[in-house]
Every structure is written in structure tokens, then in C-alpha cells.
Amino acid sequence: MWPYPKIVAHRGGGTLAPENTIAAMRCGLNHGFRAVEFDVMLAKDGVPVVMHDPEFGRTVAGEGSIADFTARELAARDAGAWFGEAFEGEPVPTFEQVATFCMGNGIWMNIEIKPVPGFEDRTGLVVAQTTRRLFAHMLDHSPAALPLLSSFSFDALQAAKLAAPEIPRGFLVDTIPVDWHERLLALGAIALHTNHKNLTPPLARAVKEAGFGLFCYTVNDPVRATEILAWGVDGFCTDRIDLIGPQFAGVAA
Ligand code: G3P
Ligand code: MG
């Protein structure tokens, strides 16, 4: 089951913009994408913010944990300067700001719940509740109209399921574990998300035959993209939004 776009811009704008910022979402949009993946964790005040690393240092200058700063304090930090002068002053956005931008521009979202370690349950709950509130007017529509929550954290997805069971979930893994089917059933997940490097044709076939969606990260080579689509993979995210566009290989996004 995969009622969603097939080609998804990773972290908003892939390699063309500072990841997980509004500028990145705008970049993906300007490259024709109507589907993005981004990462969400909780700030100190419990507000979900869009950020990949739990620590400062790589995309936001400084030291320390994201969980020690409020969303307002994070909004004052520069998440764009590391990428280039043109992006200086781009703030760390809240989840709600990014979701509002995406909804306003017809962009589908794969919302990756990326908890700061120790905050798994709380992050899953807050992200799911926030998503349900933002999409309250769409809950009667088909699941295709809703975003897809995903996480490497089983606990975060369990919390999301309890808090907002109607928001679809996908279980993220680096390597597909032997008990993948039981885990998907326990989570009420509709899809398995996996590292394409660890996928094989028999595994892809097993997931599809069991009736689940199969999504891969992060596919940056067009040849590889063609290969895994032929294996039955339903969709993937890419950093190379310049090479692999939303209409890649004739795929209807
Ligand atoms: O959601 C797929 C992918 O984003 C997972 O890895 O580290 O890029 O968040 P990462
Ligand atoms: Mg991610």
C-alpha cells in the first residue's frame, strides 16, 4: 500500500539547500517536488522543531543539546549559514511552520520522528497530536491526503499510534530485521522504510507480498533508483533533487 508520491525530496531540498529549513522546502518546491521528508524533535519547551542532529555543531553553530533550548531560542539560531552566504539567517523552524508551508503549497510530507535520546515516547506523542490537529479537516479523507509519520524508534511510533491512530505510520530501519512483519503489525504501520543499500530483491518481494508499502532512503544514483523501482519499491527519498526529479523515469509523482 503506497498512495503517496514516489519521489521525495530528502530533508526538503536535498543537497541544494540547508537541510530541514523553510528555504529547503522552497527549494524542493522550485524543483518541481510536491513531496518532502524532514526530521522532527522536541525543543526544551516541548515544541516540535525541524532538525536532524540532536546536538549543535554541524548545521547550527555552537555546542550542546537541542533539548536544552526552547523553540524560540532555536528560532534565533542560524541553520543556513553553514550551507552558504545566501542562506544566512535561516532559522531552525518549528514543525508547525514547516507543515503550514507544505500544506499551503500542496506538498506531501513524510514526517520523520527523530527523538533526542530519552524523549522517544514524548516526541512520538507530540508529533502525532500536532499532525492530527493540523490535519483535523482531512481525517475523513483517504489516507493519501494525510502525511506519513516514520521513525527508527519503535517506541516513538507506538506512542504516535496511541496518540493519533488515524495518522499513518511507517517503520524505519537501516537493515530489515527478521521480525519486520511482527513489528509492522504491532505498530499498525502501513509501510517499511529501509536503507536501499541493505535491500535485496527477495526482501523487497516479501514486504510487498505481505501487503505493505516499501520506501527507501536515500537514493542518489539514477541507475540504482531504476533498479530498486523494478524490485517493487514504492518510493524513495533523494538528496540529488537536481538529478532525480519528481517525474524520474516516467514515474508519476
Ligand atoms: O527518513 C529517511 C531518512 O531521512 C533517514 O535517515 O538520517 O537522513 O534522517 P536520516
Ligand atoms: Mg530523515
UniProtKB/TrEMBL annotation:
Recorded GO MF terms? phosphoric diester hydrolase activity
Q: Which InterPro entries match?
A: GP_PDE_dom, PLC-like_Pdiesterase_TIM-brl
Q: Which GO terms describe its biological process?
A: lipid metabolic process
Pfam families according to UniProt: GDPD
- Residue limits of the GP-PDE domain? 5-248
NCBIfam families in the record: PRK09454.1 (NF006989)
Against PANTHER family, the record matches this protein to:
GLYCEROPHOSPHODIESTER PHOSPHODIESTERASE, CYTOPLASMIC, GLYCEROPHOSPHORYL DIESTER PHOSPHODIESTERASE
Q: What is this protein called?
A: Glycerophosphoryl diester phosphodiesterase
Species this protein is from? Oxalicibacterium solurbis
- Gene from which the chain derives: ugpQ
